[in-house]
Specification:
Helix content is about 30%, strand content about 25%. A 4-stranded mixed β-sheet has the order 2-1-3-4, with helices on one face. Helix 1 links the parallel strand 1 and strand 2. It contains 2 helices and 4 strands.
Length: about 90
């Protein structure tokens, strides 16, 4: 797949955790509002989970084959930095 958010073949799930009202999660909420449709369009078979809970620091998890999981904090990042972080995380399963 050649889309902007084309995930690696070994990726089984992407999970975003953040606070629904906290200022520290504002960029993550903005990123998801703008980019979730494109991510889902480019990867219709891959679950993209959105988990919001009060007081949760923004973080993204990528689960790959054989239960291997990687995560990256999104705290303090801009929309563009979040896009780079997510793109790097979902394409690199080593």
């Amino acid at each position: 797949m050649s889309g902007r958010f084309a995930f690696s073949k070994g990726l089984k799930e992407v999970r975003f955790l953040f606070c629904q009202t906290g200022e520290h999660s504002a960029a993550t909420r903005s990123f998801l509002l703008q980019n979730y449709p494109a991510m889902k369009k480019d990867n219709p078979a891959t679950p993209i989970l959105i988990r919001d809970a009060s007081g949760t620091l923004p973080k993204v998890y990528a689960r790959f084959e054989f239960g291997k999981e990687k995560s990256q904090s999104l705290e303090g990042l801009s929309d563009q930095e979040i896009e780079q972080t997510v793109s790097s995380l979902v394409k690199n399963n080593s």
